[in-house]
Amino acid sequence: MALGKNYEGQDCSLARALELIGERWTLLVVRDALYGVRRYGDFLAHLDIPRAVLSQRLQALVEAGAMERRRYQESPPRDEYVLTEMGRELWAPVHLLARWGERHLSANGPHRTFHHQPCAVRLDSEGVCPSCGARAPLEEIEVRPGPGADHARQDPVSLALRHPHRMLQPLPG
Amino acid sequence: MALGKNYEGQDCSLARALELIGERWTLLVVRDALYGVRRYGDFLAHLDIPRAVLSQRLQALVEAGAMERRRYQESPPRDEYVLTEMGRELWAPVHLLARWGERHLSANGPHRTFHHQPCAVRLDSEGVCPSCGARAPLEEIEVRPGPGADHARQDPVSLALRHPHRMLQPLPG
DNA sequence: CTTTCATGGTTCATTCATTGAACTTAACTC
DNA sequence: GAGTTAAGTTCAATGAATGAACCATGAAAG
Question: What is the mean predicted confidence (pLDDT) over B45-52?
């Protein structure tokens, strides 16, 4: 969505949230970051997003406090973008939305499935582990390719996600 | 977001979901519909949305199966837009997003609060009633104006929401 | 039986955001 | 010093959002 102008008359926390994460591409950037993507070039290749838009979105997320930009090497200087606690809290709504899309809008079964790694059991829509009954913490969740997975993409992130992967672990390996 | 072109390369149920509800204004229309708004003119006045955009969004929601358009009187012929089960299932992610926005992006406390009416207790972020421990069904949830409520808007829907109101009950009364 | 009103739209010119290609910067590598 | 990689910025063209004006239908008022 957009800038100052937007939704400003709306007396609602949802509108505030959408001013940030309702912008086009933003939630997909967050999804990738939850998977563990951290670098500009990897977001770029995995999302097929115009460079200018990616720059703007990462900056907006950083300004809002949902991501942090930090230097991970000095020579040559390189920065990476990682989710803050605020950003990681988007996991619950993102997962719920994805499961809703899977139920109602996807054709061939889930593209990816999410498992509570210690219990080796698939999470339910709410992110709860049916085995231990707890809401799985992000660090204990594993993404796996599902039956509806598409093998067309050849970018490094897509390739890495052909194998089970712990959420938030830097991607691609 | 947009039409055929969009997110099509994304191998992800979230992308499918965002093609529909990630479009600007769409999730606010859904939020209003969850409150009980049903008529074109009421969405229009409450959202301050351009008429052309509202028409397009309602049509997209109907086409996707999240809303149903139905005649509620014959003379003069008048239609209303109501959420289907698929649409009502968006309550969980919408509520979660709103609570996230409230925690991280809102200044003066919640604009509205959601309560399990039979227990008369405020729901937690996940929509669970702390008193009875169950996920509250939409029909049993009451919206109430919160401490951060803004009293500037004068449209019929805003006026009706100054008082406690059962979700999905036709609005304005 | 003509005018006016209410509702629910469509049309259209302007503004604004997104796209995608090309260019820039900076530092390292050969 | 030529080439490469990473991370951007710039810019012209396209497409969507905006907001005002217009249109259609039916009912109610005069």
Answer: 97
Q: Which nucleotide is nearest to A52 (CA to C1')?
A: D9
Residues whose CB is less than 8 angstroms from the CB of residue B122 and which lie 6 or more positions away in sequence, other chains included: B113, B114, B115, B116, B130
Task: Give the whole-number percent of chain B exceeding pLDDT 90.
Answer: 85
Question: What is the distance between the alpha carbons of residues B40 and B86, in angstroms, rounded to a whole number?
Answer: 20
Provide the mean pLDDT of chain B.
94
- Which residues in chain A have Cβ-Cβ distances shorter than 8 Å to B17? 97-98, 100-101, 105
Q: In this complex, do B13 and A110 lie within 8 Å of one another by their Cβ atoms? A: yes
In the predicted model, what is the mean pLDDT of chain A? 94
CA–C1' distance A114–C9 (Å)? 45
Q: What is the dihedral of CA A158, A121, B92, B29, to 10 degrees?
A: 30
d(CA B51, CA B161): 23
Neighbours of A109 (CB within 10 A): 12
Tens digit of pLDDT for each residue in B63-114?
A: 999 999 999 998 889 999 999 999 999 999 999 999 999 999 998 889 999 9
Of A31-45, A115-129, B6-20, the poorest mean pLDDT is in B6-20
Backbone angles phi and psi of B153, in degrees to 5: -70, 145
| Chosen from B8, B11, B124 to mutate, greatest number of chain A CBs within 10 A | B11
Residue A66 pLDDT greater than 50, yes or no? yes
- How far, in Å, is the CA of A74 from the C1' of nucleotide C26? 12
Give B60-74 as a 3 state SS string: HHHHHCCEEEEEEEE
On the 0-12 / 13-18 / 19+ scale of CB atoms within 10 A, A5 is exposed
CA B5 to C1' D15, whole Å: 12
Report how far residue A31's alpha carbon sits from residue A87's, in angstroms, rounded to the nearest whole number.
10
Residues from chain B contacting residue A96 (CB–CB below 8 Å): 92-93, 96
- Under the banding of pLDDT at 50, 70 and 90, the label for residue B10 is confident
